[in-house]
Amino acid sequence: MAFIPSSIKSCLSNPDPHVNYSAKFTTIQDPLQKELQRATLGKAKEFGTLGAPEVLTFGENFIRAFKGKKVLDIGTYTGISALAWALALPDDGEVLTMDIDLNNYKKFGVPIISKHPETFKKIKAVEAPALETLDELIADGQSGTFDFAFIDADKENYENYYNRVVTLLKSGGVVFLDNCLWGGRVTVEEHLENDPLCAAIHKTNRIIFQDSRTYSALLNFGDGTHVAFKV
Ligand SMILES: C[S@@+](CC[C@H](N)C(=O)[O-])C[C@H]1O[C@@H](n2cnc3c(N)ncnc32)[C@H](O)[C@@H]1O
Questions:
Q1: Which of 42, 128, 172, 188 is 20 to 30 A from 135, comparing alpha carbons?
Q2: Domain around 118
Q3: What are 31-72's pLDDT values in tens digits?
């Protein structure tokens, strides 16, 4: 069975006191976020893939600092990352969240987020393979218009998502790629050979490091957050 690292583990149950301490002095959650996190951890399948709260707070900080208005959220799941970005956006901001299957969002996210219509109205959810959605945005002339993006869907496509997102970001825009340490496995040769998801993430990390279109840093934060700023 394929290895799946837990993003949420970084903050809630990591045995390393340094990780817990940093997460504690980073994470700020709205009551809606706490409610959706509780609901997801309690009942959704694969709840360990829920975005790490400290990473979401860090992303919100960027959106607020840059006064971002247009956000891409690749991999909706129950909607906790889309909710974070919506809370950080101004009233006329929009999060385009995309997932191949929006059932978890409809079941867990929508009933909770819709209690706050001002936030809910900022989230547009698209059910389709994310590559198709991103290609449609490029064909629609939206290149160079997005302020922030979060890549957190299927790891095989990380390189493809990154390349499309760089096209869609405006100059100075920021992308976060989640799970870029893959539970530490990207550092182990055996996993790079035997785990295709691990190899795909490692390849994307190298591409970002060498990419002249962005300035970047791979942070040991959450499950590894690769942060890239478009030149
Ligand atoms: C790790 S979860 C996203 C977690 C979410 N960002 C959060 O913070 O809780 C990954 C999601 O990617 C979706 N996904 C997988 N393959 C996809 C694809 N080809 N296109 C779009 N979404 C995909 C899955 O259905 C799943 O909901």
A1: 172
A2: 9-230
A3: 999 999 999 988 878 877 888 999 999 999 999 999 999 999
